[in-house]
Each structure stands twice: as C-alpha cells, then as structure tokens.
Amino acid sequence: MAAPFQMPTLWLNVEVDAEQLICEVAHSTDLQNQYDAARQRPTRESAHGRERRREQCRVSQKTFRERKKKEQEDFELSVQVLENKVRDLEERKAQLIRSLPLQYVLAAQPDFDGGAPAKLARKYINVFKTGYVPSKRRAGERQERFLRAIADEDINYNGAIGIQCILDNWSRYTSSFSAINIEAFRCDVMKTDDGAIVKGVTRSTLKMNRQSIELFFPNCPDTLKPRLIGQNLIVVATMHWSFDEHDRLVQLTGRGDFTSGLLTILQSPEDVAMVLTRSRIVPAQLPPPSSSPRPGKLNVEYLQT
C-alpha cells in the first residue's frame, strides 16, 4: 500500500506565513491609522481649497464694490459740476435777456418761452388754481410763502398796496363762491428789458351761491337770483405781471369779463345789466404801503417745482 502524500515543509511554512501576514495586516493599528489618514487627506485638502476660494471671492467682491462706489462718486461729482455750470449759464442768459428789448431776444431765440417771469406767472396761476383758504393752514402757508418769495412787499395790486391785499382778495373770492377753478389760456412776455411784463389770459369757473350774489351783485333783482344760484359763471380775465430788473414781481393787475359769463347764463342783455348795476367785482383799496424793507433778489426755487 502506497504511503500518503505529505505536503512539503516549505509549503507549509509559506502558508503559515501568509495567514499570519494577513492576520497581522487585518489587526494592525498603524496600518489602519495610515489608511484612515490617507482617506481623510483629500477631504482636508478640499476643505482648505474651498475656504481659500471663498476668501479670494470675498476679496474680489470687495474690490469690485469699492471700484463701483468710486465710479458712482465720480459720476455724481461730474453731474454736480455740470449742474452748477448750467445754472451759471442760465443766470447769465437771464441777465442778457433783461438787458435786451424783446425783438432782439426773439431774433436770437425764436422759441423763447418768456424765461423766469413767464414761469412765475404760470406758477402763480397754478398755486391759486382752486383759490385761497387761510383756515387750511398747510396749503395757505405754502401759498403765502410763494407770494412773499416772488413779490415785492409793497407790490401794487389793482391799485392796492401789499402782498396781504392779494391774499385778502383771493380769500374773498374763494369764500364767496361754492367752488372756484382757474386755468391759464396763455402767458406771453410783452417786454423783457428794464423789467419784464407778462400778459396772461385766464379762464375762471365760479360756482355761484346766494352769498356770492349778495356780495358781488348786491342790486341783483330777487327774480333773477334763482337763475344764478348753482350756476357756473365763466369769467375770462386778462392779467399783467410786472417785474423789476431782478425778476421780482412789483405790480399785478387783472380785469375779468363778467358780462359775457352772465349773458351765457341769463340769455338777456337787460337782465345782465340789472345784475351788474353797482356791482362789487373790482377789489377795494386795502392796506397802506408797508414800511418793512424790500427783499432782495428773486428766490428762483419756485421756478423748479
């Protein structure tokens, strides 16, 4: 009987060494630590790279914002410089216009809009478009400030003297009619040198009531009053604004055509004549001249609103 096969001793030793090596590798703490460190190293490097890129991004954004801020500041400064130059040129232009007759101004600038005086006249109509009510303090104070900014304290208003005369007349009209609305048809400069004169044509819509009839038309027959109460009286008026050499308002006159408006309502010249008999549509002489010093140059702030 043949003897059983026996594995060579060398092979057995190799097999034992391999198993031992595998066991040592599997239970080696150093190798495990090295393996873990090798796995974590890319993560740490990636985190560091991301943080570095974030920092670079923050620096770039800050630099960009600072550059844009500087560009904005330079732009605003340039705009301010240009605005100052335009303002100086406008003032120089206004000075030249004040020294030239209107015909020469129109020859040099055919589309001349009247300059500061015409703008002030239009602004005046707009400010008092719906009348003047002193009890409405905010609106009333704004209207009074406007007048005192553009007009001489001793302004001549239809023969009366002083800014208060204008305010009193507006208050009288506003409180006497149920509603009032004024619009400008046109405002034309009639004269530019040595003090401008502006001629304006306005259209006023006045809603009549018993108080307005008794105040302005005290001799109106009782039989005609019902035909007037509640009606809108249309009054077309011609106004003249006179300015001094500094474009400050020194005289204001106006005359309204009540006859045509009443004729439209009553349809009878005889009835209109009876209503207008001894009417009070022309303002009375009011306060004497003020002794306060005259203001200086025109406040042009109101031309920009």
TrEMBL record:
Residues 38-57 have a biased composition (Basic and acidic residues). Residues 65-99 form a coiled coil. The keyword Coiled coil applies. The keyword Coiled coil applies. Keywords: Coiled coil. SUPFAM superfamilies: Leucine zipper domain (SSF57959). Residues 34-65, 283-305 are annotated as: Disordered. One of its GO terms (molecular function) is DNA-binding transcription factor activity. This is Aste57867_18871 protein. It comes from Aphanomyces stellatus. The lineage of its organism: Eukaryota, Sar, Stramenopiles, Oomycota, Saprolegniomycetes.
